[in-house]
Design goal:
alpha+beta, Structural Genomics Hypothetical 15.5 Kd Protein In mrcA-pckA Intergenic Region, Chain A, two-stranded antiparallel sheet, 37% helix
């Protein structure tokens, strides 16, 4: 009698879904968050939006937008299991352009911090007067 158990496959023939890989690589805390990001257009491959079920393969360049940062990573290995962060970091390599861009954006945010509060009525009127003068 034979069993229908899956034999271990090498990483070249293994198929991993986009949401599963993003979760295993620790870009998102849960698969459902990865799915929401993909469906929300925050994940691209070659400038095109992808579907949750897109198959990831080695060498693929994936662009992931997370909050303020936009990561462009090259897939180095495939995994369907979520491991420690040190292992997850070995699944991809971030491009140097992406690292430089994120550092520059972080410096700009530190130089121009966001206001700590919403403007009140008086401040909104001042903003409107300033816009009218400039416009």
């Amino acid at each position: 009698m034979t069993t229908d158990r899956a034999e271990p496959q090498d990483s070249a023939s293994r198929k991993v879904r986009m949401d599963l890989w993003l979760w295993a690589a620790r870009f998102f805390r849960t698969r459902s968050l990865a799915k929401q990001a993909i469906e929300g257009g925050k994940v691209h491959v070659q400038g095109q939006r992808v579907k949750v079920s897109t198959t990831v393969h080695k060498g693929m360049l994936i662009e992931v937008r997370q909050g303020w940062d936009e990561h462009e990573v090259e897939v180095l290995d495939l995994s369907e299991v979520r491991g420690p962060a040190t292992v997850a970091r070995q699944l991809y390599r971030e491009t140097q352009a992406s690292i430089d861009r994120n550092l520059l954006k972080a410096e700009e945010r530190r130089a121009h911090p966001a206001p700590d509060h919403r403007p009140d009525k008086r401040e909104r009127r001042q903003i409107m007067r300033f816009r009218d003068i400039q416009g």
